[in-house]
Amino acid sequence: MLTNLYFVRHAHSTYTPDESGRSLSEQGLHHAKMVSKLLIPEKIDYVISSPYKRAIQTVEGIAAYINKEIEIIDDLRERTLTTEPVADFHHAISKVWEDDRFSWDGGESNVVAQQRGVTVTIQMLEKYKGHNIVVGTHGNIMVLIMNYFDRKYTFNFWKQLDMPDIYKLTFNRKDLVEVTRVWR
Fold this sequence. Notes:
Elements: E1 2-9, H1 26-39, E2 46-49, H2 53-65, E3 70-72, H3 89-98, H4 110-127, E4 132-137, H5 139-149, H6 155-159, E5 165-172, E6 175-181
Parallel strand pairs: 1-4, 2-3, 2-4
Antiparallel strand pairs: 1-5, 5-6
Helix pairs in contact: 1-2, 4-5
């Protein structure tokens, strides 16, 4: 019995230091409507999301369409890079991808963030076996989860993601059998 997880990287948001409360931009709101239209034919059963506002806003249209509440799972939140704003984001994010165990002050290493994301992914696969589930989340944590199941999903893959982006991961029990890009 196959289970499909549709990982939805949130749409564009306007940057603010309030990581959890950051809203989608006007462009992001427009793209969130497109996300819903793309997911309607997929016969979605459940919608799960990170607690961050931008992730919820990106998937709330499909949840409304299927008339289901969004289940919020804290461990789908974006990886914490550091507790303080960084002067050079590219350098900071590159460094954690170069060394899986490295973390900035107050931040999560790839190993720690991946473990958190994979644990919740396996829980979803067990709870929603045989269903189609939309998962509203973020680029780094999504790619770290994908990387656990297939090592080809790396930092270079992350750099090529769109906002939003949608990847359908098809599992046979807990084994990844196929990844399909749904966005565009």
